[in-house]
Amino acid sequence: MYQSIRPGQVWRDTEGKRIQAHAGAIHYEDGTYYWYGENKEFTDGQTKTWTYGIRCYSSKDFYNWKDEGLIIEPNMENKKHPLHPTRHAERPHIIYNEKTKKYVCWIKEPEKAFCILVADGILGPYTMINENYKPMGKAAGDFDIAKDEKTGKVYIYFSCQRECTYIMELEEDYLSVKPKYKTLYEELHPPFIREGLAHLEVDGCHYLFSSGMTGYVPNPSQVAKADTPMGEYTEIGNPHVDDESCASFNSQISYVFKHPEKENFYVALADRWIPDYPMTKEKYEWFCRVIGSNYNRKKYKSTIKEKIELMKTPMMANVNTSISDYVWLPIEIENGMPKIRWQDEWKV
User: Fold this and answer.
1) Nearest to 238 by CA among 204, 284, 305, 178
2) Across the beta sheet with 66-72, what order do the strands follow?
3) What is the rounded CA–CA span in Å between residue 288 and residue 188?
4) What sign for the dihedral angle of Cα 132, 71, 262, 269?
5) What whole-number distance in Å separates Cα of residue 53 and Cα of residue 165?
6) Which one, 29, 147, 204, 235, has least CB within 10 Å?
7) pLDDT digits (tens, 9 = 90+) for 33-66
8) pLDDT per residue over 261-276, tens digit each?
9) Distance CA 302, CA 343 (A)
10) pTM of the model
């Protein structure tokens, strides 16, 4: 039995197995937490398996999690189906629609689009509604979905590969977007273009957390702030305090959980995708130089040797994410700025 959160350490479920809910989120309902995410148990870097369905865990105390199984099964028959294990189904987000009484799940899928499913309960079964949805025809990347506490309207925040970040309002059934959008983080290139988006609303302020584009290798997070869900957003800095790794404490935030019943209960849920490849400030500067040289050779200088070394790093392919760990840390709001501090162990 766990009695605390221990960031970066192996986290096991109530049966003693590694928890497999990566790039995940938490839904809270009737005193129970439901933590769901990508099932990476077979993603060992040796096979083509990327995501083997969406797995969910339940907990009453936020520490000990019971495996509720795969709430969204992989499609084993059709290799072109977005939920086939070899496809890149990633970053599920589930939101409950009070009008339709449906749980709506959006998943980033490999064709730079979303697949959308619905269910009558958080644990499913889920029915596919749309296998390939591109909001306003835009290519979809990492994303978050959030409800505005003032109006009840729901918004999606998603990165568009190597272009910008889009903000759109969802239709009332949460199955599509309305024909209006705003953009931010325009005219950026890797590794600075933003992904790994996570939204938090506190006292009417909207915070958008994001990371740069370096694959599974972590990098510094940034926060943007606005007075309304769609912005205008202004960058206000890196939320990770005294981060010597220069890589968000060697993790990537996937979601920010705000407890609906407890005051000042904000937790950054992050993945440490590659525990055996710790990032450092020197490594990050090297990544920026080598990747940046592909887009601006005058500003970023790198050698052929450095580019070859970059190809050997565990950025995407052949990465064993079945042993990825979690870095959950509380968020404090100080003078309008979210702060995340490292703690070896902490309690709710």
Assistant:
1) 284
2) 22-29, 32-38, 54-59, 66-72
3) 13
4) negative
5) 27
6) 204
7) 999 999 999 999 999 999 999 999 999 999 999 9
8) 999 999 999 999 999 9
9) 36
10) 0.97
